[in-house]
Amino acid sequence: MAKKTIDQIDVAGKKVLMRVDFNVPLDDQQSITDDRRIRMALPSIKSVVDRGGRLILMSHLGRPKGDAGDSKFSLAPAAKRLGELLGSNVAFASDTVGDDAKAKVDAMGDGDVVVLENLRFNAGEKGGDADFAGELAAMADAYCNDAFGTCHRKDASMVAVPEAMAGKPRVVGHLVAKEIQYLSDAIGDPGRPFVAILGGAKVSDKINVINNLLGICDAVLIGGAMAYTFSLAEDGKVGGSLVEPDKVDLAKELIAKGGDKLHLPVDTHCGDDFSGDCNKKVVPAGEIPEGFEGLDIGPETAKKYADVIKSAKTVVWNGPMGVFEMAPFDEGTKAVAQAVADSDSVSIIGGGDSAAAVEQLGFSDKVSHVSTGGGASLAMLEGKAFAAVDLLDEA
């Protein structure tokens, strides 16, 4: 699945249209509260700029309803921050394929950067519109995809634009290249034992992932609120825990399919209210009393899971073990994170809440790879093909 990267094409004097993920959080004053996604794109951006390329950046931000007048979704703050990080002027176009975008792109010199306004201000982006894609494609001599977080989508900028640029170089940026390397290698040729850790609230979100991983993993460890749906499937008592009663039959099928590979919690840390100050107790799995809800895996489960992780050669983790934002119900996630950090495994953290947990707990520098896309990494773990990646040039 190796793809040609931005470093492998000649960009001097050429216009490169790069899809990045500048979907950064903004406060009420339109100030960026976390610029990590912009910083993570810098290696690909500098690869073009430092070699005299002319870089056109496009991204979405938030979920505007095609309303170009909604300034709270503008990419202007992202363009400003990028200029500060690069220490050079970054031009911002007030539209995507309109007069301002075309004028700013036409005025570019070698090493210049233009950020286009939010792609989702155009209805054609979500609709995969060929005319909209054609206007974007006409701006540039080469295309680069460095937005892994949207690789599982079929938005115009991800699929229709590179399709419209057939015959021109179509490559991946550093971020996407790294994601493909880690995630596809983990699925295609994992070091063994291969252990998957799956948490989060809903079995329904992870059914296809669990199914796929049971076929290729040596152990699948289940935590988070979805464990209580599995508990129901085994006729356990779940008190007021978050469950999906309509997914009980599915959980039964997964238990039958998983056999010894599927590891479920043996105890539960529960509370009588969703707060750190509630009355707490640790009970055996399936014995949560009325008036209590499960909020974390218990200490025995954490120890059992840590023992499984200890011998792993490949670990994929998606979803926390409990309410990791709220002590003391962060203990299970902490124990698992510590075990992953201490293991000799190639460890891949699958974006979203797992990435936030690892970051918050201070383990992000002790794992091999933290994915930049929760939904995309899940889709890859399901074994799905990505049209946005498949149509790019082979290495």
From TrEMBL:
<feature type="binding site">
    <location>
        <begin position="21"/>
        <end position="23"/>
    </location>
    <ligand>
        <name>substrate</name>
    </ligand>
</feature>
<dbReference type="GO" id="GO:0006094">
    <property type="term" value="P:gluconeogenesis"/>
</dbReference>
<dbReference type="GO" id="GO:0043531">
    <property type="term" value="F:ADP binding"/>
</dbReference>
<keyword id="KW-0547">Nucleotide-binding</keyword>
<dbReference type="GO" id="GO:0005524">
    <property type="term" value="F:ATP binding"/>
</dbReference>
<feature type="binding site">
    <location>
        <position position="206"/>
    </location>
    <ligand>
        <name>ATP</name>
    </ligand>
</feature>
<keyword id="KW-0418">Kinase</keyword>
<keyword id="KW-0808">Transferase</keyword>
<dbReference type="InterPro" id="IPR015824">
    <property type="entry name" value="Phosphoglycerate_kinase_N"/>
</dbReference>
<feature type="binding site">
    <location>
        <position position="37"/>
    </location>
    <ligand>
        <name>substrate</name>
    </ligand>
</feature>
<feature type="binding site">
    <location>
        <position position="325"/>
    </location>
    <ligand>
        <name>ATP</name>
    </ligand>
</feature>
<keyword id="KW-0324">Glycolysis</keyword>
<comment type="subunit">
    <text>Monomer.</text>
</comment>
<feature type="binding site">
    <location>
        <begin position="60"/>
        <end position="63"/>
    </location>
    <ligand>
        <name>substrate</name>
    </ligand>
</feature>
<feature type="binding site">
    <location>
        <begin position="351"/>
        <end position="354"/>
    </location>
    <ligand>
        <name>ATP</name>
    </ligand>
</feature>
<dbReference type="GO" id="GO:0005829">
    <property type="term" value="C:cytosol"/>
</dbReference>
<keyword id="KW-0067">ATP-binding</keyword>
<feature type="binding site">
    <location>
        <position position="120"/>
    </location>
    <ligand>
        <name>substrate</name>
    </ligand>
</feature>
<feature type="binding site">
    <location>
        <position position="120"/>
    </location>
    <ligand>
        <name>(2R)-3-phosphoglycerate</name>
    </ligand>
</feature>
<comment type="pathway">
    <text>Carbohydrate degradation; glycolysis; pyruvate from D-glyceraldehyde 3-phosphate: step 2/5.</text>
</comment>
<dbReference type="InterPro" id="IPR015911">
    <property type="entry name" value="Phosphoglycerate_kinase_CS"/>
</dbReference>
<dbReference type="GO" id="GO:0006096">
    <property type="term" value="P:glycolytic process"/>
</dbReference>
<dbReference type="GO" id="GO:0004618">
    <property type="term" value="F:phosphoglycerate kinase activity"/>
</dbReference>
<dbReference type="InterPro" id="IPR001576">
    <property type="entry name" value="Phosphoglycerate_kinase"/>
</dbReference>
<dbReference type="InterPro" id="IPR036043">
    <property type="entry name" value="Phosphoglycerate_kinase_sf"/>
</dbReference>
<keyword id="KW-0963">Cytoplasm</keyword>
<feature type="binding site">
    <location>
        <position position="153"/>
    </location>
    <ligand>
        <name>(2R)-3-phosphoglycerate</name>
    </ligand>
</feature>
<comment type="similarity">
    <text>Belongs to the phosphoglycerate kinase family.</text>
</comment>
<protein>
    <recommendedName>
        <fullName>Phosphoglycerate kinase</fullName>
        <ecNumber>2.7.2.3</ecNumber>
    </recommendedName>
</protein>
<feature type="binding site">
    <location>
        <position position="153"/>
    </location>
    <ligand>
        <name>substrate</name>
    </ligand>
</feature>
<feature type="binding site">
    <location>
        <position position="37"/>
    </location>
    <ligand>
        <name>(2R)-3-phosphoglycerate</name>
    </ligand>
</feature>
<dbReference type="Pfam" id="PF00162">
    <property type="entry name" value="PGK"/>
</dbReference>
<feature type="binding site">
    <location>
        <position position="294"/>
    </location>
    <ligand>
        <name>ATP</name>
    </ligand>
</feature>
